[in-house]
Specification:
about 35% helix; six-stranded mixed β-sheet; alpha/beta; about 170 residues; 6 strands
Length: about 170
């Protein structure tokens, strides 16, 4: 009986204590940095898929809203992010004997510029790419929305990590 009582007390103590960690990757000094100017990324890719621009910009804004406490401003932000979608293209892969491709790769490229007006040496400009391969037996229109979501999520994650994580 004493052993059961000891186990119950130990279990109660352990269940009452909890430790919570949140790994967003953000490394921001909120005492110094309070605002973010996040400009609209225009789609300048030669091949244009109309929903892409809006989906990308909303996903980017959502990422910073959910993972930082920065306030969005239209000008003079402590941090500034701007850029454009510069590539959205299909490439035939794995050409077979009959000269038809068995796979197609969809690639998306985004040029991003980041300026930190509070901390010197953190400014950067880079082009971020993501791609997905799908069977050439499938029409692009059947998989395009899902692939765009995946590519957008990957590029938004890369932009967030490149600008907010100080690893």
């Amino acid at each position: 009986m004493k052993r059961i009582l000891t186990l119950m007390v130990a279990f109660s103590l352990l269940s009452a204590c909890s430790i919570s960690y949140k790994f967003t990757g953000a490394s921001i000094d909120y005492n110094l940095t309070k605002t973010l100017q996040l400009s609209h990324f225009v789609n300048q890719a030669p091949l244009v898929y109309p929903p892409l621009e809006n989906l990308f910009n909303e996903s980017l804004k959502d990422m910073f809203t959910k993972n930082t406490r920065l306030q969005f401003v239209n000008q003079n932000g402590d941090m500034e992010i701007e850029g454009e979608i510069v590539g959205y293209e299909l490439t035939a892969l794995a050409v077979q004997e009959d000269q038809f491709a068995s796979e197609t790769r969809l690639t998306m490229n985004v040029r991003m510029r980041f300026v930190n007006n509070k901390v010197e040496g953190q400014n950067k400009e880079e082009t971020i790419s993501a791609n997905r391969t799908f069977s050439s037996n499938v029409n692009l229109t059947d998989v395009q929305d899902q692939l765009i979501k995946e590519l957008t999520d990957e590029i938004v994650d890369q932009i967030f990590n490149a600008t907010m994580a100080n690893w």
